[in-house]
């Protein structure tokens, strides 16, 4: 599948219905109140033109009682309108705040619920998700703007009724806003298309902004003096995204100005007609003047609402519905739970894998059995496909072809959540969770995240108990220098914390250690791995037949594994014990020899 082959977005109205249902479930009482107050407030607001006319007529007639009555009427209308609009806007705001949390959590859950991480790496999907994430808060405003739109349309209908009371022909004035609305709808769609086409540049501009302002990139940018270059690139990306959008907006403005000029001409004609033909000329002209000018205001508001409706709410609803469908599709394929234990092991049958959006296989026709209970080391040059193999076994990507089976059970049809519960380990690009040390380790096994004993054991297994001892508040110390009383760790210490997190689970079926100690010195790594291998072979971790996969470039560690797998050019070229591979005299024996020689020379 290429990067641009994406499922089409679901239908607009069906998606809108789904978003509205989600909002409704989060607070039906608030939505009902907001709707009633918004709709009720439309009546005094639209009737204000009539009140104004009555008042002006009374002034012209010099009638004291009528002037007083007109004043009272206008005051009552203004107060009623203000009160209802205030209540409506407060309720709407409270609802929007609550809905924002619901919508954002929903999007985060959907993304996390997708078993694979393909959607994080396919540019076209990323663009969709990035637009959705940017406008997530807008979705929570959906009801508010929908009610405003209904309120404005109601105001426009009442206003047309007032105009018809002067002369039914004035109802024709209601036709002239149609070109404005048509233009507004069409242009909104055109602008949306341009915005989508530029989403990639926008994402790049944001990425470069984060790069220019983040502490991690700061060091390199200063040393290499690449700050000005990043700023230039960011500016260029922004221009590439926004120049076509600005052009599209100018075109929209020109069309809208034309359509509004048409309405203005019709309004002036209506005024002239009323002045020439109405029976009660003064009152009629005043009413047409007041109602007509308000009608033009309502058209402007309808246009704004429709524009946002088309560009944001309808579109976001469709993207949200797409993400919901995508997450459901990737969940629905599971038929079984992960097995309780492994008797045979994890088998790869003719597994080939190319990253989404690419054609080049990074793993090609892999046939392999990782036996239950074994510690298997994976070696190979940079880019040989070691981490890709790890990601496939964790179920983060499905193989492009071939199968991975767990005691014969297809991983692709195994419930990913149940499989993840039985997978643990540390990745090469581990994440530094800036929580308290205890939490940062404990989240490796959520049900026991607050168990100090479990965290203590995991720290010991990772040889990171010395880190906890050296910190001012032990395992309760906040990690990360950016937080009050936060303490930063060295890269190697962060890595050991990540390793401890990977050692939290007691009965994993798969433990992946992808260069888990690359920032730790060779001696410590060796000691650590020796300890780990003893543990893995003892009943505690291997009682369930769990497989351990260790990726390392250090052959002193690798040789301690039960089996060694050599990857070369996307294929498995050698697989066996250390002694077997040395006897084979192939790639492994050669690399082992080079490292052993280097160590000997270094020690001499
Ligand atoms: N997300 C990705 N999208 C596209 N290609 C990728 C992605 N990640 C890795 N690759 C490519 O897949 C190939 C194998 O990468 P992988 O990370 O599996 O190698 P590795 O053996 O772990 O290397 P190293 O020893 O440097 O960690 C590389 O050519 C790399 O460019």
Gist of the model:
This protein is of the alpha/beta class and 604 residues long. The chain has helices at 12-26, 28-60, 64-113, 123-134, 136-140, 142-166, 177-197, 199-213, 215-224, 227-277, 281-332, 386-393, 416-421, 437-442, 452-461, 465-470, 491-502, 522-537, 539-542, 555-558, 578-584, 587-603, and strands at residues 345-353, 363-371, 375-380, 401-406, 409-410, 423-426, 510-514, 547-551, 563-568, 571-576.
Description:
The chain has 604 residues and is an alpha/beta fold. The protein folds into two domains: 321 residues, ABC transporter type 1, transmembrane domain (ABC transporter transmembrane region fold, Up-down Bundle), CATH 1.20.1560; 175 residues, Rossmann fold (3-Layer(aba) Sandwich), CATH 3.40.50.300. 64% of the residues lie in helices and 10% in strands. The strands form two sheets. Strands 6-7-8-3-9-10 form a six-stranded mixed sheet, with helices on both faces. A four-stranded antiparallel sheet has the order 2-1-4-5, with helices on one face. β9 and β10 form a beta hairpin. α2 runs antiparallel to α3 and α15 crosses α17. 36% of the residues are buried. The mean pLDDT is 84. Adenosine-5'-triphosphate binds next to α12. Keywords: ATP-binding, Membrane, Nucleotide-binding, Transmembrane, Transmembrane helix. This is ABC transporter ATP-binding protein/permease. It is found in: Cell membrane.
């Amino acid at each position: 599948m290429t990067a641009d082959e994406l499922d089409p977005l679901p239908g607009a109205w069906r998606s809108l219905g789904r978003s509205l249902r989600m909002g409704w479930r989060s607070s039906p009482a608030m939505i009902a109140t907001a709707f009633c107050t918004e709709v009720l407030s439309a009546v005094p607001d639209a009737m204000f033109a009539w009140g104004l006319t009555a008042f002006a007529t009374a002034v012209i007639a010099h009638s004291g009682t009528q002037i007083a009555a007109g004043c009272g009427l206008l005051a009552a209308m203004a107060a009623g309108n203000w009160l209802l609009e205030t209540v409506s806007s407060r309720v709407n705001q409270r609802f929007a705040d609550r809905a924002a949390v619901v919508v954002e959590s929903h999007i985060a859950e959907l993304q996390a619920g997708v078993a694979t991480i393909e959607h994080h790496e396919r540019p076209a999907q990323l663009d969709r998700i990035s637009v959705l994430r940017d406008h997530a808060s807008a979705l929570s405003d959906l009801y508010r703007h929908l009610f405003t739109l209904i309120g404005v349309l109601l105001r426009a209908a009442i206003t047309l009724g007032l105009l018809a009371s002067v002369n039914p022909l004035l109802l024709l004035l209601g036709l002239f806003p149609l070109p404005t609305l048509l233009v507004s709808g069409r242009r909104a769609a055109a602008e949306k298309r341009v915005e989508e086409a530029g989403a990639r540049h926008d994402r790049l501009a944001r990425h470069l902004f984060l790069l220019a302002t983040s502490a991690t990139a700061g060091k390199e940018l200063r040393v290499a003096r690449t700050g000005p270059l990043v700023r230039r690139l960011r500016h260029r990306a922004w221009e590439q995204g926004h120049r076509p959008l600005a052009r599209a907006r100018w075109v929209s403005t020109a069309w809208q100005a034309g359509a509004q000029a048409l309405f203005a001409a019709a309004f002036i004609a209506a005024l002239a007609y009323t002045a020439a033909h109405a029976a009660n000329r003064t009152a009629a002209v005043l009413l047409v003047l007041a109602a007509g000018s308000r009608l033009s205001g309502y058209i402007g508001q309808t246009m704004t609402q429709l524009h946002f409706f088309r560009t944001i709410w309808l579109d976001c609803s469709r993207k949200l519905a797409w993400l919901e469908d995508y997450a459901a599709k990737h969940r629905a394929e599971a038929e079984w739970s992960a097995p309780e234990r492994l008797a045979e092991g994890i088998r790869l049958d003719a597994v080939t894998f190319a990253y989404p959006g690419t054609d080049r296989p990074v793993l090609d026709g892999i046939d392999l059995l990782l036996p239950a209970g074994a510690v298997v080391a994976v070696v190979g040059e940079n880019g040989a496909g070691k981490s890709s193999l790890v990601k496939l076994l964790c179920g983060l990507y499905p193989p492009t072809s071939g199968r991975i089976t767990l005691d014969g059970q297809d991983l692709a049809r195994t419930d990913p959540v149940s499989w993840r519960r039985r997978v643990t380990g540390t990745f090469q690009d581990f994440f530094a969770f800036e929580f308290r040390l205890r939490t940062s380790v404990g989240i490796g096994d959520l049900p026991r995240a607050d168990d100090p004993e479990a965290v203590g054991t995991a720290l010991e297994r990772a040889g990171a108990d010395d880190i906890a001892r050296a910190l001012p508040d032990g395992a309760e110390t906040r990690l990360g220098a950016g937080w009050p009383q936060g303490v930063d760790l060295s890269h190697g210490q962060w890595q050991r914390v990540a390793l401890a997190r990977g050692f939290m689970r007691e009965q994993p079926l798969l433990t992946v250690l992808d260069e888990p100690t690359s920032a730790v010195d060779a001696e410590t790594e060796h000691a650590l791995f020796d300890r780990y291998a003893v543990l893995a072979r003892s009943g505690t971790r291997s009682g369930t037949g769990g497989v351990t996969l260790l990726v390392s470039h250090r052959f002193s560690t690798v040789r301690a594994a039960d089996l060694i797998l050599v990857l070369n050019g996307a294929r498995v070229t050698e697989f066996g014990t250390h002694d077997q591979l040395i006897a084979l005299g192939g790639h492994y024996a050669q690399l082992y020899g080079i490292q052993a020689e280097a160590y000997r020379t270094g020690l001499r």
